[in-house]
Design a protein that fits this description.
three-stranded parallel sheet; 9 helices; alpha/beta
Length: 196
């Protein structure tokens, strides 16, 4: 399970999924754009655009499925509700939740955090610039909730959707940040004022 705003989905998201599939021997990664993240403020790109961009970014990867579950459900997207739905519908499967390092250190503050820990094995991305000691300490702390956490080192750099949106607004070359089909989609639909 890999959730987020994906506003827009970028190459680091793609490479992160590929890394997690290999490293954790995952059968499938379900990517689910959030309808409305409890942690985001301000407006975001329309749901159907973010969903379409995710579909384009992961097109051709049969180990990744893009789900409209949170968008269709609407309202605030709480991870615990999504995990419960998938656990109930796929009771035989072991569920992993992929998080970035920033999200991982705040996990215990998430809505119904203890339930999240009971429903999923937490897989966290450790990038070159992240402090492994802080993450290891958090993983130890979370054991009191019964959490099972795995830290996965990856060379994925510090690209974020915020950095990508800024580059798009400045009309910068984003070919090293976004899949080609996503760039074409952004231009065709006039998103982020890119190509106007």
């Amino acid at each position: 399970m890999f959730g987020g705003s994906f506003d827009p989905v970028h190459l680091n998201h793609v490479s992160l999924c590929e890394t997690m599939i290999k490293t954790a021997s995952l059968d499938k990664v379900v990517v689910f754009p959030a309808a409305c993240s409890p942690f985001k403020t301000g407006t975001q790109t329309e749901d159907f655009h973010r969903l379409n961009m995710c579909k384009l970014a992961f097109e051709g990867n049969n180990r990744v499925e893009v789900s409209d579950f949170e968008i269709t459900r609407g309202g605030k997207s709480y991870t615990v509700d999504t995990l419960k739905f998938f656990k109930e519908n796929y009771p035989q499967d072991e569920i992993y939740l992929i998080t970035g390092a920033d999200a991982f250190v705040t996990l215990e503050k998430w809505y119904k955090a203890e339930e999240i820990f009971s429903l999923a094995h937490i897989l966290t991305v450790v990038r070159n610039e992240d402090s492994i000691e802080v993450l290891q300490q958090k993983a130890e702390e979370f054991k009191k909730y019964g959490a099972v956490c795995t830290l996965v080192s990856t060379p994925v750099g510090p690209v974020s959707s915020t950095i990508v949106r800024e580059a798009l607004r400045k009309k910068s070359d984003v070919s090293s940040l976004l899949p080609e089909k996503v760039i074409e989609y952004i231009k065709e639909n006039g998103l982020y004022n890119y190509g106007n």
